[in-house]
Amino acid sequence: MKFLLYGAYGYTGDLITNLAKNYGLEPILAGRNETKLKALSAASGYEYRAFDLSDTTQLEAALAEVDVVLHAAGPFVHTARPMLEACLRTKTHYLDITGEITVFEKAARLGEKAKAQGIMLMPGVGFDVVPTDCLAAHLKQQLPDATSLKLAFGTIGGQFSRGTATTMAEGLGQGSAVRQNGKITKVPLGHKHMTVDFGRKRLFTMTIPWGDVSTAYHTTGIPNIETYTSVHPSTYRYVKLQRYFGWLLRSSLVQNYMKRKINRGPAGPSPEKRARAVSLVWGEVTNEKGEQRRARLEGPEGYTLTAHTSLMITKRVLQGDWKAGFYTPAGCYGEGLILEVDGVKREDI
C-alpha cells in the first residue's frame, strides 16, 4: 500500500522509511532535496519525488498518485498550510507529526471543508500527540464531568532531533499557552511547575505550549488544560528570566545563531540511545467537586514511538478506517490506540 512521505530524509522521516516495510507499506519518498532523496531511494528501494511545497503543480501531481500523505517536514508552522490546502484540492487524506498548537487549530478550522471533500485531516500522529491524547481520552472516561486536565511528559535517556530543536529555537521568547474556559490563552513559558511521579521516576516539570492544549480539548471537551514537560530545575530558573530578555531571543541574530549551532549537531539520537530511552506520560483530571483521577503511560523512546504510531495510523487510513473531517488520534481511534504499540503500559494511579 503506497502513501506519500514528505520530509522522508529528515531524522524522523528516515525512521519511518526504514520501518514502513514492517507495516506492509510502501512510501513514495518526497521532499525538496533531490540528492538526499536519491540516496534514500537507493538505500530503501522506494521511488521518490523531489519538489518544493511552493510548487503547487508538482505538489498536486504527487498527491494525486496516493490516497494519503504523511507529512514529516517541519517546522510545521511553515509547511503545514500549503500541504493542507493541496490535500483539500486533491482530496487526499492528511496526516502529520506536528506538536504545534497553531497547526492543530488551522486543521480544525478546515474540518468542515475536509468533510465536504470526503477526506480526513489528522495532525499529530506521532509522540505529538498520540500518547497524551489517548491518556486524556482515558481520563475523561474515568471522570466524565472533569473540568480541568493536566498532562505531563518526560523521558529517561532521550535526546531531541535536529528538527525538534529547530522548532523549539523558533519558539524562544514566544511564551506559552494553556486552555482556560475553552479558549487558548497566552501565558509565560514555565508559568507553573510541579514534580510528577511518573512511576519509574519523579521528575520536575514546567508548563509548555504542547499540542494537547489544542487537541485534548477537541478529544475530551475539557475546558481547562495545562501541559508540562520535564526539565532540570536549573533550566527552569533560566526560563523564568525570559520575561526580561524575550525580545532578544526572538531576534534574528539569536535565532540564526541557535539554528547554526543545531545544524552542527547530530541529526538525532543514535539507535543505541533510542533503544535504551523510555518515554513517560502522566495525566490528571479534576471536576468541580474536587474529585480526581490520575493515570500514566510508559513506552518506547519518543522518535521510535512516532515512527510506529504514524505508520499504524497511515495503514488504518489506507485500509479505509477513517472519518471525514478534522480528527485527533484518540478522537477517531479511541483511548486504546497507544496500547497497540509494543512496550506501552498504562496504569491508573
Describe how the helices and strands are arranged:
Blueprint: E1 2-6, H1 11-19, E2 26-31, H2 34-44, E3 48-50, H3 56-63, E4 68-71, H4 76-90, E5 93-96, H5 101-109, H6 111-117, E6 120-122, H7 130-142, E7 148-156, H8 162-170, E8 176-180, E9 183-187, E10 193-197, E11 202-207, H9 212-220, E12 224-230, H10 233-240, H11 242-249, H12 252-264, H13 271-276, E13 278-286, E14 292-300, H14 302-318, E15 325-326, H15 329-333, E16 345-348
Parallel strand pairs: 1-2, 1-4, 2-3, 4-5, 5-6, 6-15, 7-12
Antiparallel strand pairs: 7-13, 8-9, 10-11, 11-12, 13-14, 14-16
Helix pairs in contact: 1-14, 3-4, 4-5, 5-9, 7-9, 8-12
Structure description:
A seven-stranded parallel sheet has the order 3-2-1-4-5-6-15, sandwiched between helices. Strands 10-11-12-7-13-14-16 form a seven-stranded mixed sheet. The model has no long low-confidence stretch (mean pLDDT 90). The protein has 15 helices and 16 strands. It folds into two domains: 2-125 and 304-333, NAD(P)-binding Rossmann-like Domain (Rossmann fold, 3-Layer(aba) Sandwich), CATH 3.40.50.720; 130-301, Dihydrodipicolinate Reductase, domain 2, CATH 3.30.360.10. It has helices at residues 11-19, 34-44, 56-63, 76-90, 101-109, 111-117, 130-142, 162-170, 212-220, 233-240, 242-249, 252-264, 271-276, 302-318, 329-333, and strands spanning 2-6, 26-31, 48-50, 68-71, 93-96, 120-122, 148-156, 176-180, 183-187, 193-197, 202-207, 224-230, 278-286, 292-300, 325-326, 345-348. With 349 residues, the chain is α/β, with parallel strands linked by helices. The termini are far apart.
